Please model this.
Amino acid sequence: MIKIAFVGAGSTVFAKNILGDCLVSSIGSELSIALYDIDPERLEDSRRMMERLNANLNGGKAKIAAFLGVSQRKDALRGAKYVVNAIQVGGYEPSTVIDFEIPKKYGLRQTIADTLGIGGIFRALRTVPVLMDIADDFLEVCPDAWLLNYSNPMAMLTMSLLKRGIKTVGLCHSVQVCASGLLKALDLPQDGVQWKIAGINHMAWLLEITRNGEDLYPEIKRRAAAKNAAALAPGGKKHYDMVRYEMMRHFGYYITESSEHTSEYSQYWIKGNYPELIDNFNIPLDEYPRRCRKQIADWAAMREKLLGDEALTHTRTSEFGSYIIEAIETDVPFRIAGNVLNTDLITNLPAKAVVEVPCLVDRNGVQPTVIGELPPQLAALNQSNISLQILTVQAAFSRKREDIYRAAFLDPHTSAELSLDDIRRLCDDLIEAHGNMLPSLS
Model:
């Protein structure tokens, strides 16, 4: 059988999406699934949900087992051919609350804080040590497995896994919906459309988009500019793509990730000296904590839906995980967008970077595509994020405060709002507030 270990399986809804996809794939009856988590209640919920799905979708042919806590982690991983990582260290409370509330005291506001910015830095600092402990077990009991990383901050965690020698690819879902979402929002047809996307996670670029051979960008830009102009007019209806449309107007290309993410990846949007930008461009401050609170409030109803429905079923999603496993196992090629080491794939980004590029998957594994040079303005925006990523990973391994400070100094949004001394003090406050969620620092 083909063993898949799911690390962070207490994320029941996401486990359903990834593992449910695997069950309805062509190899669904050949699977042995190991669910691993440190939360006994959530792990049991996921086990019950997966047992029901397995029974309903393929007559219970797959094998499902649950493993709890660090003492059982090696057993969960042992013999796995694929490992899915979906951990979130620290959860909403205390860690996410800390990531948002302490920066507010310095006047530094955020929207999502899971990928970049001061929140992204500290999310990485508390996650990388845990992930490296998992990597140690991985290298001992399933060293040849593919690790499919879904956890954020995507680039920094994938970079850390690659640094540790793990065969890994980082997976997001921005690229799959980028072109179709853009065309739908602008009332443009989607049939006959081809596109190319590359860059870094959450800041990849729609480099080309054509329909039946015709370049769609001129019409896309015309409609996007008109839609934003109407939204900015008195009484205009705001929409949730305003930042991305404005970035496209100035830099020439559409970005893959949402406006709430994009607004905190550069120095242009969340600015204390220009508070009108927040309202004008519909930037949802504190969006991630709001989503977390809603998910917590809604969990009881969702749990009942997942566990109380005897006819529970699943329709395959657009998440790449099951398609990667199926392509490797069957040797039927499939194309994904993967986060991989920049081995001369994007030639004007550094070799240490993790880039997001088209990849072919078949029996040979995940094989990335050479893109060449990005337009220089796009490479410069990517580089502003990559420098922080590299320094944050360095800090996570060195465990030195000075490395943490230097990573934060380079964050575009943080450095646009705070002085060097304030950034240093903010980092000290965050380190103290996280307490034993972070390793000892020198």
